[in-house]
Every structure is written in C-alpha cells, then in structure tokens.
Amino acid sequence: RGCPAAMEAREPLRDVRGALRAVLARLREGEPSEGREPFELPRFWDALGQTFQITSQEATKLSLAFSRPPLPSAEDCQKLSEDVQNAILAVATVYYWLPKGQGTTLRKMVRDATTEVVEGMIQLTDTILNASVESLSQEQLISTGGVWEACEQVSNLPRDNQAAVVSALAACLGVVKDAVEEMEHALVEGQDPYGDIMEDEELGFRGNRDTYWSEADRQLLSSCMGLMKASKACLKKVLAAVKAHGKADSPEQIAQLDDLADIANEISPSVDELALSMYPPVNPLAVRLNAAKLASVLKKVLEIAKTSHVCPPSEEGWVQFLTGAVDHNMNKVKNFTQGQL
C-alpha cells in the first residue's frame, strides 16, 4: 500500500470520500426546496453546466496529481480535496434549485445525471485511495474517464419538461417495440417457442403440452398480440402528440405531461407481464388477468391524453380508434377464456 508518508498524503481524500457519500445519500432521497423564486430555467442550465465543467476539471487535476511520483504533499492533497468537495457541493446545490413545479420527469433526469457525477467522483477517490503503486493505473484512467463522461451528460439533458417527457416516452416505445417483435417472432406459424433450447436428443419426443401452443392457445394469443400492438400504437401516437402540441409554459401543462409520463411508464412492465404469461404451458386465466391489466393501463393513457393539452380536436380520431381497438381485443380475450371461469 505504499509508504506511510503516501498514506498520510492521501488522508484528506478519505474525508472527502465520506463527505461525497453523504451528498449522494441526500441526493438519492432528498427533495429540493421549493424556495429560490423567481426561478429561471436558462440561468439554472448555465449554472448546472458550469458546475459540471468545474467538476470535470477537478477530477483531471486530482487524477494527474496522483498519476506519477512525487506524490502531492499533505498540504497540496488537502487543497485538491477541498476543491473536489466544493465542486461536488456546487453541483448538488444547483440541482436543488430546480423546483418540482418545473416537472417531476425533468427533475428525475437531472437528478440521475447529478447522481452519476457524484458516484463517478467517489469511484475516482476510491481508486486513488486503493492504489498500491505511485503510477497511473488502468482503473484510475477508467475512473477519470467516467467522471468526464458523467459531466458531459449535462449537454444531452432535456431542457424542459416537454423535452423530458418526449425522451421518457421514446424510451418506453423502444422497449415495447422490442417486446412486440420478440413475441411476433415466437408466434410465427408452426414455430416452436422453445425450439432453440429443446434440441436435446436425450429429451426424446416432445409431444408434451408444456412446450407448444394448441390451436385454442393461438386464437387467444392473437388477441393478446392485438393488445400488444395497440400498446405500441398508443405510445407512438402519444409521443407524436407531445412533440407536436406539448408545452411546459404553465404549471397545469407541466403537470399534465408528468401524468402522461407516469402512466406511460406502466405500459412496458404490463406488456412484459402479458408476454411472459403467453409462453406455454398457457394458463388462460393468467393471460386474461394480465391482458386486463394492460388494457386498463392503455385506457388510462388514452383518457389522460384526451383530457390534456396535447390532444386538440385534430388528435381525437386516433384516441377514439385506439380505445376501440383495446376494447375489441380485450373482449375477444374474455370470450376465449369464458369457459375457464
């Protein structure tokens, strides 16, 4: 672990690591103050960008100081440690300026980015504290790069709640698209859902109900596919409407966008649950329950969209159409499972 002098020189870094861990814990659970009025978004972004940039520079300075002998003196290490701590405290302080009223979706994204910077800096101090030799290790390079990357994230953050909700909806849509494609692939006529894993000769003949879909299963599953496709269409349309009409100018608009993002977040887990229950052996009741759960989430999304500012009269057609599609497929699921009740 190097000579005692080296350990002593690093001592201030231990205190910094403790302080950064405390900041991280507060960020993870903390609610910001509602104070600091009047709040101005452009000023907030300038300040946040600056604090991220300064943190990136401090990470570089710290890393360079410990990259080759001679190690910094205890005094220099104290100074470096204070600078790192001040940079991170500034990052957290600016994050806390952002009031909830600017949108919870936006806040969560900014908080995630802020948390990543603090985690990166903790990782870097860890690496330096654990380094046994006085040379630049691969880990230290990676940790330093990690802080740089985390600090660069600030330029990719959505600038208001409308942009934040667009980005959240796009992410949901990506996940649901993948789930739909996977299920379509598995359902291809005559294809065996377990074909890839059940090729084993020793298992012998597989005429067993647990590994294939019966004709009745396939009928039921086609209506489930209808619901999954409606989920994809729903997210696509809501995303387009938020892009076209979404605004973050008033508290009401901001809150409506958050409501949409919150309910849309429930679509993908509900699609996954339904998809899982569709694999053989099919339990029709489990399928029906999961289908009903997804249908109700979709109806809620459509309802919230319809009553919000993102749906002017020009958007009413698809809302009505998709509401009908959800009901139609859900009714078919109910009919196919009626005998099971």
TrEMBL record:
Subcellular location as annotated: Cytoplasm; Nucleus
Keywords associated with the record: Cell cycle, Cytoplasm, Nucleus
Residues of the Cyclin-D1-binding protein 1-like C-terminal domain: 199-303
Pfam families, alphabetized: GCIP_C, GCIP_N
Top-level division of the source organism's lineage: Eukaryota
Residue ranges annotated for the Cyclin-D1-binding protein 1-like N-terminal domain, each copy included: 48-187
InterPro entries listed in its UniProt record: GCIP-like (IPR026907), GCIP-like_N (IPR049317), GCIP_C (IPR049318)
GO cellular component: cytoplasm; nucleus
Keyword Glycoprotein: no
Keyword Membrane attributed: no
N-terminal signal peptide: none
PANTHER family referenced in this protein's UniProt entry, alphabetically: CYCLIN D1-BINDING PROTEIN 1 (PTHR15492), CYCLIN-D1-BINDING PROTEIN 1 (PTHR15492:SF1)
Family the UniProt entry places it in: Belongs to the CCNDBP1 family.
Name the record gives this protein: CCDB1 protein
Species, as recorded: Eulacestoma nigropectus
